[in-house]
Structure formats: structure tokens, C-alpha cells
Design brief:
Chain lengths: ~325, ~325
DNA sequence: GTAAAGTTTGTAAACGTTTACTATACTTGT
DNA sequence: ACAAGTATAGTAAACGTTTACAAACTTTAC
């Protein structure tokens, strides 16, 4: 069994209140007894029980981080940004993969509330915030990240996706491209649609001459999906001169199909991805893409959360932090 | 304030022991009262306090996962394997990045012990297990992963690195390569040295004619390091016909240097990496490498840990699970 | 009709802390 | 020498559960 404060008290011949005070550096205990107690604690291999402390203090110094999938190269950086700041502030973090399932996400939210985390950072599996979500979010500070609609009723930190799509489209246009293709992840995804919207906005004025609806395709967020979409487009003899994918994985898949079919990049077809995940910068890939400050996003989300945990005043104002994207020009466009 | 069991008891007009029993599906409460209590709990938005429960049951259904860096593409898969199984078993997981710092790792171990996790899965930042480690590990079930020496005194799941190095060397030899280069991460890393050892074993009988000491280089585990090492080797006119890197990131860096310098792969120089991280399979990369069952490793480590948590009998036997590597032949060798 | 057994409920202690309140023993200043 | 203040320590309640034990009531069996 673990040593407790009472064991120490007994050995030191004092009450356990004194031990608590001594160990927590509180005012009002004789320096010599304090010293003795600290030494005793060390000798007895004492480790304070954070569970018991959490019960009385009603806070656990723990937060939950719910993301769709840590295996998706977008999220490790977000997680790292979050964790680094949390660690510095003395918090621990529960990692939860929702696996893009609303159901698993909800189960986790409930579980974390039961475990009395001090707050929640969520990169939601789906853009829509349900009533049941809202009910849960009322119980504790929550900050949403990435792909969250304005007016969702919760604090959030997001990317300016519209701008991201816009700068990609604008660049391609300036490079003289005139036959565009858009490959998106899920049509239900808010951020995908925003990127699409921004992209189309850049193309305004050029109208349907530069992008026709059968060059706009949706799948899931995976490489394979980008590959399949691009491949079948090419096989149908629909050859664009520029492809904008709503994320890098999709773009990577598209690249694979494009080079398999013998087209050169960017000469024949230019490709721009989104997010600037690590593999995008590898030699032999060198994907032109839109930078998404992932680490920063995780960090900011946590910083907002901590503010709200520490100061209840700041809660419920539905603040929205918007990060700026940036075009990273490499080989493929 | 959150609803407690007592609030429910008051409203239902029963003692709170009864509420506890009802909610936990324990034997011995009248079906109709139980139903009423459950309904009441729902209406009152009751969420059981896992902290309080943890205090009395002396278990938290929580484990800690300490890894060097979730941003390193090796670890997300490990983490996912761990988390998937834990989730299924009703456990939550603390994610901790040691950032390869022994100091941060130790801080985390202490913190997690304070938070009374039921067990720990650690991918250590350094291969050596110190006395202070051992002292902490005696307090709770611990399973070590990856790069852990036999005889370290703790249960572990590892890869057969020697075999991994061996099959890489053997394959290269069979392909007629005769001028080898080895690029390793830290020399202090046990798994790097094992991979080296296996590699050299394959080359036995050929002796120093095929690999000289100035073709054996160490750096850190990052892409940049592989790039730098390979680049300077080539600039010194030391041109091997085969490179074996102790991990894929290093190999990716080496590839970059090699193609920048105008050599063809595998014709001029063959490259084999290690771990088979996701980017290794991308088009334009297609790195030949040694598969490391990462997801499985996370899963197995957790499964061992859970065994030990649930059955104290199984503790302290220093069991060692060894996974088998496998050569994945792609473009670069 | 009653003893035995079973069902349902309540009481109270325990888990390991923190902390408000109280009590005692020293210091000071006058 | 004594009132007032200060430094140090102790007591006990609280945090929200679970659970051993006891109590009350209901069935069942004969």
C-alpha cells in the first residue's frame, strides 16, 4: 500500500493537517518540523494522492483532447502543440481518438466529464454541433478546433479556410491555369466546403469555363481517395491543368495517379494541397500547399481553454480565433 | 454544481447507498425503485464522479502512455494501437511526450503516479533503465516498448532488431552490393545498435572489404541528420553502393542527398530504411524498408499491461515479447 | 402459525486529502 | 505583569463515492 499523509503524521508525531501544510509549503508551520516532515516524506517514498486532492479541490489539472485520428499526419502536430503548453502549465492530457465517429466522440465526452477533467479541447469529427453536444458543453469549459462553424455556440480556434482556398485559386490562375479540378474530402465537412468556397471565389469572373461540375469530386480524406478520384478522371479523359485538393493526403494520392499516367507536374498538371503536413515537404514529393499552423492551433486552443478554466468570467462568450493560411510554393505548382 | 448521488437520494426518498446500488446494477434493489432512480438520475443530468469512485476503489481505469514524440511518424501508430485497445476495455490514456528528455520523462512518471494511473506504457527516451526508474516501476505495473535491453528488470515488447538488420544486409548482399554504408541515429540507442549488429552479422565473412568504419555514421533520428551525413559522405567522394539507415526518416534524408547529387536509386546506390512509416510508401519515395509492426506493438504492450493490472500474479516476471520484422521491397533497393 | 430464508433498505465507515476554525504557547510592548 | 498579538499545532468537516454490516420486512415451507 502507498504511504499516506497519516503515516507520515504518525511517524512525525504531529497531526496530519500539519503534514499537509508542511508538504504544500503553506504558511504557519515551524521550519524545523517542516524540514523533518519533508525528509520523512522522502524517506517513506511518499507520493501525494492526486485523486484525493482532486476530490476536495474539485479540480484535476487534467484536460481531455479529442481528435479524429492521431494517425492522420495533421493531428500529431496539433496534439504536440496542445501537450507542450499543458505540460508547462502542470496539466495532463487525455488523448482520445474519435475515429471520425460521432458516437465514439460522444462516449469520450461523457467519460471525460465523469473523470472530471477541467476542460476539453475537441477537433470534432463532424462540423455540426448538436443540442446534445451543447448540453454537455455547458458542464465545463470547451474549446473547439478546426472545421467549426461560426455561431456554433462554443469558443473555437479555426483556420481561415476561405482565404486558404482563395490564395490557392488565385495563384493557379496567375500561373495561367484555366482548367481546374477540385478534389474534396467529405461534402459534409465544413472546412472542406469553405476551402471550396474560397477557391471558387478566386475563380469568379472566369465562370464555368474554367471549372465544370464534373471536375468537382468528393471522397473521404485519405490518400487512396485522392488517387482513385484522379485516376478515374484521367481514364475518362478529363484532364485538368490544375488540381486543388482540400488536404495534402488527397493531393498526394492525386499526384500518384498523375505520375502513374505519365503526366508531368507542374508542366501538364499543377497540384496544390492543403495543410502542409510533414510528408508534403519530402524530396520526391515537394507538394505545393497551403500552410495550416497546426502546432500553433493546438497551442492556442489550450491557451484559450486554460484562460477559461482559470477565470470563469471568460466563459460563454463564444470567442473565435481565426488563423491565417499561407501559400507554400514547392514543386507541384 | 454537479448533481450527486445524495441529491438523487433526497429526491427519491431513499438512502444514498441505495442509489449507488441502483445505478451500478448491483443485486438487491427493488426493480421499481431502481427504475425510478435511474430515471431521476437521467432527469437530473447525473454524471458519476469517477474521482470519488477512484478514491474508494483504488483504481482509476486510466493508464499513462509515455513516448518520446508523437510528431515522429513512428509513434502515432503505436499510440493508436494502444488507445484502441484501451478504449475497448474502458480505460482512458494520458498522452505524454518526453521529447527524448530523461528529465521530462521522469517528471511525467512521477506525475502519473500521483494521478494514480493503473499502469504505465513507456517507450523510453533512453535505453538504459536506471535505479531510480526501477524504484518507480516497483510502484505499479509497467510495460516498456521498443529499444529496451533484455534483463532490464521490466516487462517489455520489442522488435527483433538484430533480425531486422540482418535481413536488410542479406538482401543487399544478394543483390550484389559490396560497398556498404550504415547511418544510425544516436549511438546510445539500444535498438540502433542492435540493427547495426544484425546488419554486420549479415556481412560477416565479407569483412572490412565491404564496410569500413568511415562509412558508419551516427547522428540523431531526424531526416535532416540523414541528409547531412549522406551529403558530406558524397562530397568527400565516399560513394557507397548501398545504404542501410536505422530508421526511415534518416533514410528519407539520405535519399534526398543522393538524388540531389544526381545518383540514381537503386542503380547507383541502394537504400533501405527501417520502420516502414507511412511516408515511406508514398509515390516518389517508395522506400524499401524493414516493417516494424507499430500498431501491433502498442496493442500488445497494452494487452500485457492490462493482464498485469487485472492479475497481480502476472507481475514482476519480466516477460519479453519479441515481434518479427519483415523486409518490404519497394523502389530504392 | 411460525421459523427460516430471502429481499430490500439504511447506517456508518472508509478512501486520502484540504481547510476553516479553534486552541495553545510564545513574544512584545507598556 | 499582563493584554494583545503572533506563531504553531490540532480537530473535525468536507469532497462523492462504495460497501460491510445490520435492520426491517416479505415469502416460503412445514
Amino acid at each position: 500500500m502507498n504511504t499516506t499523509i497519516k503515516d507520515i503524521a504518525k511517524k512525525a508525531g504531529v497531526s496530519y493537517a500539519t503534514v499537509s501544510r508542511a508538504l504544500n509549503g503553506k504558511y504557519g508551520v515551524n521550519p524545523s518540523t517542516r524540514e523533518e516532515i519533508i525528509k520523512l516524506a522522502e524517506d517513506m517514498n511518499y507520493s501525494p494522492n492526486a485523486i484525493a486532492r482532486g476530490l476536495v479541490k474539485r479540480q484535476t489539472h487534467t484536460v481531455g483532447l479529442i481528435i479524429p485520428d492521431i494517425t492522420n499526419p495533421f493531428f500529431p502536430e496539433v496534439a504536440r502543440g496542445a501537450e507542450d503548453l499543458l505540460e508547462k502549465k502542470g496539466y495532463s492530457v487525455f488523448l482520445c481518438n474519435s475515429n471520425w465517429e460521432k458516437n465514439r466522440e460522444n462516449k469520450y465526452i461523457n467519460l471525460l466529464i465523469e473523470k472530471r477533467v477541467d476542460g476539453l479541447v475537441i477537433a470534432p469529427s463532424s462540423s455540426i454541433v448538436t443540442d446534445s453536444d451543447r448540453k454537455q458543453f455547458a458542464r465545463l469549459p470547451v474549446v473547439l478546433m478546426s472545421g467549426v462553424q461560426a455561431g456554433c455556440g462554443t469558443d473555437s480556434v479555426v483556420l481561415n479556410n476561405i482565404k486558404g482556398g482563395f490564395i490557392a485559386g488565385k495563384y493557379l490562375l496567375e500561373k495561367g491555369r484555366r482548367k481546374f479540378c477540385f478534389i474534396g474530402g467529405s461534402e459534409d465537412s465544413f472546412s472542406v466546403m469553405e476551402r471550396y468556397e474560397g477557391f471558387m471565389k478566386a475563380l469568379e469572373g472566369y465562370g464555368s469555363s474554367v471549372i465544370s461540375q464534373d471536375y468537382v469530386k468528393f471522397g473521404d480524406y485519405r490518400e487512396k481517395s485522392g488517387y482513385r478520384i484522379m485516376k478515374s478522371l484521367i481514364l475518362e479523359k478529363k484532364i485538368p491543368d490544375a488540381v486543388f485538393a482540400s488536404n495534402d493526403l488527397l493531393a498526394l494520392g492525386a499526384i500518384q495517379a498523375i505520375s502513374e499516367e505519365g503526366f508531368r507536374m507542374p508542366e501538364d498538371i499543377a497540384v496544390i494541397g492543403f495543410d502542409n503536413i510533414a510528408p508534403a515537404s519530402f524530396r520526391g514529393v515537394e507538394l505545393t500547399t497551403v500552410e495550416h499552423p497546426k502546432y500553433r492551433m493546438g497551442e492556442l486552443a489550450v491557451s484559450m481553454l486554460l484562460e477559461r478554466i482559470e477565470d470563469p468570467e471568460k466563459r460563454g462568450k463564444e470567442e473565435r480565433l481565426v488563423l491565417d493560411p499561407e501559400l507554400i510554393i514547392r514543386r507541384t505548382a
